[in-house]
Amino acid sequence: MLQRIYDWVDERMDITPLWRDIADHEVPEHVNPAHHFSAFVYCFGGLTFFTVVIQFLSGMFLTMYYVPDIINAYESVMYLQSEVAFGMIVRGMHHWGASVVIVMMFLHTLRVFFTGAYKKPRELNWVVGVLIFFVILGLGFTGYLLPWDMKAYFATVVALEIAESVPVVGEMIRVLLAGHEELLGAQTLTRFFAIHVFFLPGALLGLLAAHFIMIRRQGISGPL
Amino acid sequence: MHRGKGMKFVGDSRIPAEKKPNIPKDYSEYPGKTEAFWPNYLLKEWMIGAVFLIGFLCFTAVNPVSLEGIADPTDSGYIPLPDWYFLFLYQLLKYEYASGTFELFGNVIIPGLAFGALLLAPWLDPGPERRPSKRPVGTGLMLLATISVIYLTWEAVDQHDWEAAEEQGEILDEDDIQEVDMDHAGYEIYEEQGCIECHGEQLEGSGAAGPNLYDLPYGAEDIANISVEGIGEMPAGMFDGSDEELEIMSEYIEAEGQPNGDDDEDEDEDDEDEEDE
């Protein structure tokens, strides 16, 4: 049955080449932990992606309850974690997941660096990877404000002060993020929400796609 | 999409003339023990993923996420702290040569150089050698950066007053607030002298600015002393009224803002009576 559906689609779209690109490739011995245990360092990239998927899913569920305004944001988070079934688990997954993404991404970066995998011909993929790093840090920064509790608020106050102290562009960055030269309030929360939920995830999806397409084109780097 | 040869026209569209079989390539001709990604390797990878997911879920279940009190922009005494993965940047800005007049180093130059170098690593280290030992400069700098980040994070955690942080963020329950007598002469003085700004409208305290004034271990005289001379982090000279006012207020605070100084004692006596019965 599945085969017939596949054939039906394939006849109209010619998807076999696509399928080949995504799944039909070999995994060399030196990255396979089944053959060399030390090859587990090659898992960090996959685990980063896996946790990013967890972040997308848990985040989608969080937005079913979260309200991005300064009066209800806090109450909605409180309601989510104290009243909603498994609300605490979903919020916990998103909260701790953020830390796990950062740790895994850091380890993945170190692995790629120390195996010299960023060298020709993979320079561009390294650059895309570092951009992903920045986007993830941006997601962590903007997401921290959203529960609108004391630690969120004051951490963001300090961060915006730091941003403002940058010469020339500091003021602009601050106003862009906070929506006001001095205050941190209703505007800031909606902006951080928009950045956290639409702008950065959109950028992240694009960068991830580029990252993976390049890996499939170039294959994984050879043994040292 | 396949174009040109091998396509045939159907009406105004083209479809492939011949079907390609969708069977994985034979990898036996590759050197070493390679393995097909689909489905062999992916299955194993999924198992690692499953173990990882279970571990992650267990961790999440036993570590509930904290939620502090709702954001209160007026609580100026709050000690801020970013999430742990920004601590290294935050700590960097605390050092003398990265703040104040040298601010530019802390907020632009050092992070800019570090992240810029990370972004441009392929061009800063363009040689063909891949082994870390064959490119000592790159390896050394990366190790140095990694150690610095870990060290800075450690220092930030070490220097933070975690106990105070926990207290300041605590959510005040309705139960923690006692109704005080706001018509009392003592309350008026309490308000006038500005104690209210740090110790709250109902003597309940306000986050990091000041503690609550319930159940104090002091008598009225000590409280009067504290009002004038300060204590710990409370500055001196908060009170500047007459001695008479000072006395009324101190007694009022000692009585935890209850209408009459004696009320408390009456209650205690009542309790004892009940116990006797």
Structure description:
The complex is a heterodimer of chains A (224) and B (277). In chain A, 70% of the residues lie in helices and 1% in strands. Chain A is mostly helical and 224 residues long. The longest helix of chain A is centred in the C-terminal third of the chain and has 33 residues, at 186-218. Chain A is globular and about 55 Å long. The model of chain A has no long low-confidence stretch (mean pLDDT 93). Helices cover 48% and strands 4% of the residues of chain B. Chain B has helices at residues 37-62, 87-92, 103-119, 121-124, 136-159, 162-169, 185-192, 195-199, 220-229, 243-254, 263-276, and strands at residues 7-10, 13-16, 35-36. In chain B, helix 7 packs across helix 10 (243-254) and helix 9 (220-229) packs across helix 10 (243-254). The longest helix of chain B is centred in the first third of the chain and has 26 residues, at 37-62. The radius of gyration of chain B is 35 Å and the shape is elongated. Residues 261-277 of chain B have low confidence and may be disordered. Classes of the chains: A mainly alpha (224), B mainly alpha (277).
Structure in a nutshell:
Chain A is mainly α and 224 residues long.
Key features of this structure:
A: 224 residues, mainly alpha, Cytochrome Bc1 Complex, Chain C, 70% helix, B: 277 residues, 4% strand, disordered C terminus
Give the topology.
The complex is a heterodimer of chains A (224) and B (277).
Chain A: H1 2-13, H2 16-23, E1 26-27, H3 44-62, H4 73-82, H5 87-114, H6 123-145, H7 150-164, H8 170-178, H9 186-218
Chain B: E1 7-10, E2 13-16, E3 35-36, H1 37-62, H2 87-92, H3 103-119, H4 121-124, H5 136-159, H6 162-169, H7 185-192, H8 195-199, H9 220-229, H10 243-254, H11 263-276
Antiparallel strand pairs in B: 1-2
H-E string of chain A: HHEHHHHHHH
Fold-level CATH name of chain A: Cytochrome Bc1 Complex, Chain C
Give me the oligomer status: heterodimer
Cα-atom Rg of chain B, whole angstroms? 35 Å
**Largest pleated sheet of chain A:** none
How would a crystallographer describe the biggest sheet of chain B?
Answer: 2 strands, antiparallel
How many runs of DSSP E, i.e. beta strands of chain B? 3
Structural class of chain B: mainly alpha
- The CATH class of chain A is identified as Mainly Alpha
Distance between the termini of chain A: 45 Å
Number of helices of chain A: 9
Shape type of chain A: globular
Shape of chain B: elongated
Biggest chain contact: A-B, 86 and 80 residues
